[in-house]
Sequence to fold (249 residues):
Amino acid sequence: MAREMVAIIPARYKSSRLPGKLLLNIEGKSILQRVYERALQCPSIDHVFIATDSELIFKHATDFGAECFLSNRIHESGTDRIAELAETITDAKYIINIQGDEPFIDPEHIEILCKSIQSSGSDIATLAVCNKGLDGINNPNSVKVVINLNNHALYFSRAEIPFLRDKNSDFTSFEWLKHIGIYAFKKKALLQVSKLEPTDLEYIEKLEQLRWLQNNYSVQVAIVDKHSIGIDTEQDYLNAIEFAKQNRL
Fold:
């Protein structure tokens, strides 16, 4: 069976704020297992892999039945890690990069992303959610994106974009897009961008997608209705446990 649409979950053990977070348990399942099982629920995905540089994660993933790739290389980003595996999957046309720290990611959102990369003609596709008002726009951990009239990304930033110049205006209807860090690539584009040198804007903002824009790759942005819980800190983890209990997940 051809594997045209392949999802890869990059799974790094080391995390500066919450080491080993992908192995943390939420109501009987690890964060990583929850992400993997939700990826399997997406109708367009033909195959799901986990790519890691950790023996611990490799053993854990294979124990719950995932097909896991153990990298021998040191990678600076998840994109580089999935590219190493993608190069070996000869029948793949599209590669979906699913973050390993979003245990409640919506399979419908993954499906929207798959359809976007297939229909848009862009090299890369990603997701964003629309926010109203100014709450959260100044948070540097919340990446913003501005798009053109065809939903192509113009710029990503940790700063306040777009900047609301007239603070005296009624900003309750002011809208901005929060980027969701999941990507779909044409396989050829993925292999190309993984070999590009980092750019000045990428260094400044610490956002690798700016490298792609500066090298003239088109990034299609699909808008979804909500963003799932991402786990970066201990408090995020506690919130996720409470969310799972309340929703019986």
In short: The radius of gyration is 18 Å.
